[in-house]
């Protein structure tokens, strides 16, 4: 890592507005640190940071882009040019990445590439067992579709990679998936290439979901009160607090990243890569958040509900609090209204107003029934999943294969998992789990965590609706 920090400093990467020291690009605002519960390797504040402060500058010369690789290697450029109209920008960046990996130590990017993760847990890396463990059809479909798209991109690009003389290992689907996952989870947006760029050091920031802006505004007010005695500093704070983004490619030909809130020394500095549900985080980045303010849970709905109003399909969901989205509630109210009254009442419905106690009770009871049915159709209960997770985490943290489960119901799950890897479950094995099984276990845990969170949201929705039904029924009885 030290060699990478030195190499990046030579290219002008710096964690301060001034030039970096020759020995490291970090140390003034940021430090590399490990955050086992929030993304693993990441960047910590080297000192207290103010909101909006510049924390990292990465000049264009240090950005890994398709253009850059092709400018440096005319062989790749001319081969890609022959295939260009048929290749997407992502396929091109993947080919450039694999080409540089194939060069080994002679690649200009060797120090950077050798610090990349060796494996990923994006949905596309899930095998059939792991995908099935998601249980919800929509999620299984997203996993299968992701792999299908990647496989077809790989098939299209294979003749070109053969032409470029790639080693057999780099021609495999496994290598392509690794490169795809690298591009998906580590690129930053740039205006001139849809595939984005790989940004050395900048790609070490872990993710936090975008906050509610109000909390940051309060924090800024606090900051300013403490800094009243130092007007100059307060002025700088005021300017920088206007900045709403975490960063971007700026006119000075460098990628600039800013602290989006106040950080105390040692705290992890996080970036908001975008607004994602947990399924999207799994698909594009291979992780999920236990508390995701942007989570949306979709339940199977009858077709007429999608067509009854102009609300888009993806606006009909349940929030992590268990409350139905505004659009879902309005659509249900509309559907529960007699057809001949819908037009007259539509302005009422679209404004979000409750139509009548009877209508609302019907809507809430329908939602309860739908959530209960959805939960019943899934192969396991939330209680089972939570206990399974405990066993899975025990196995993950244990130094041997001993599972230590005496409940047949869990033993069956584990037997199926081991069988999917061509192993028979043998509780007497004392050796460590083979690496490929440890990784598969990691993905299995992610799948079970995801389905647990899905089921928890539906359970909350049922409780929320039942409590409203009680309230409304009381009101009705009092009238
Ligand atoms: C841009 S990289 C961040 C640096 C990465 N931790 C590393 O060691 O290279 C993005 C990846 O970090 C991990 N990650 C980022 N934020 C996370 C979080 N809040 N929780 C868990 N994993 C996270 C995921 O594996 C994600 O694909």
Automatic annotation (TrEMBL):
Keyword hit for Methyltransferase: yes
Any one GO BP annotation for this protein: methylation
One Gene Ontology term of the molecular function aspect: protein-lysine N-methyltransferase activity
Pfam families documented for this protein: Rubis-subs-bind
Keywords: Methyltransferase, S-adenosyl-L-methionine, Transferase
Keyword S-adenosyl-L-methionine part of the UniProt annotation: yes
Top-level taxon of origin: Eukaryota
Boundaries of every SET domain copy: 28-274
Protein name: SET domain-containing protein
Organism per entry: Leersia perrieri
């Amino acid at each position: 890592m030290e060699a990478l920090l030195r190499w990046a400093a030579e290219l002008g990467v710096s964690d301060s507005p001034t030039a970096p020291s020759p020995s490291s690009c970090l140390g003034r605002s940021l430090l590399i640190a490990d955050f086992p519960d929030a993304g693993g390797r990441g960047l910590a504040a080297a000192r207290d940071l103010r909101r909006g402060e510049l924390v990292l500058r990465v000049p264009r010369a240090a950005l890994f882009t398709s253009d850059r690789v092709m400018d440096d290697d005319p062989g790749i450029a001319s081969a890609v040019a022959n295939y260009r109209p048929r290749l997407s920008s992502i396929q091109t960046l993947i080919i450039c990445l694999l080409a540089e990996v194939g060069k080994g130590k002679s690649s200009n990017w060797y120090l950077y590439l050798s610090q990349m993760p060796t494996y990923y847990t994006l949905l596309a890396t899930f095998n059939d067992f792991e995908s099935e463990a998601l249980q919800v059809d929509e999620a299984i479909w997203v996993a299968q579709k992701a792999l299908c798209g990647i496989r077809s991109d790989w098939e299209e690009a294979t003749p070109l990679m053969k032409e470029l003389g790639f080693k057999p290992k780099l021609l495999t689907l496994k290598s392509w998936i690794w490169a795809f996952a690298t591009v998906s989870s580590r690129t930053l947006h740039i205006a001139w290439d849809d595939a984005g760029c790989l940004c050395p050091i900048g790609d070490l920031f872990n993710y936090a979901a975008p906050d509610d802006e109000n909390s940051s505004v309060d924090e800024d007010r606090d900051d300013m009160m403490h800094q009243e005695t130092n007007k100059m500093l307060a002025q700088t704070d005021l300017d920088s607090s206007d900045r709403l983004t975490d960063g971007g490619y700026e006119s000075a030909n460098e990628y600039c990243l800013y602290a989006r809130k106040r950080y105390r020394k040692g705290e992890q500095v996080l970036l908001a890569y975008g607004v994602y549900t947990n399924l999207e985080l799994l698909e594009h980045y291979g992780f999920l958040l236990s508390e995701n303010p942007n989570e949306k849970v979709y339940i199977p709905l009858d077709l007429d509900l999608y067509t009854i109003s102009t609300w888009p399909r993806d606006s009909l969901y349940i929030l992590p609090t268990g409350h139905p989205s505004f659009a879902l509630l309005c659509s249900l109210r509309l559907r529960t209204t007699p057809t001949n009254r819908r037009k007259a009442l539509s302005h009422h419905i679209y404004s979000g107003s409750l139509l009548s106690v009877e209508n609302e009770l019907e809507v809430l009871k329908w939602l309860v029934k739908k959530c209960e049915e959805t939960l019943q159709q899934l192969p396991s209960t939330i209680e089972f999943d939570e206990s399974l997770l405990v066993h899975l985490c025990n196995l993950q943290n244990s130094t041997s294969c001993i599972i230590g489960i005496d409940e047949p119901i869990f033993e069956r799950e584990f037997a199926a998992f081991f069988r999917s890897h061509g192993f028979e479950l043998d509780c007497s094995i004392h050796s460590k789990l083979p690496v490929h099984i440890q990784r598969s276990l990691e993905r299995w845990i992610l799948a079970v965590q995801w389905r647990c969170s899905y089921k928890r949201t539906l359970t909350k929705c049922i409780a929320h609706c039942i409590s409203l039904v009680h309230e409304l029924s009381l009101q009705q009885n009092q009238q």
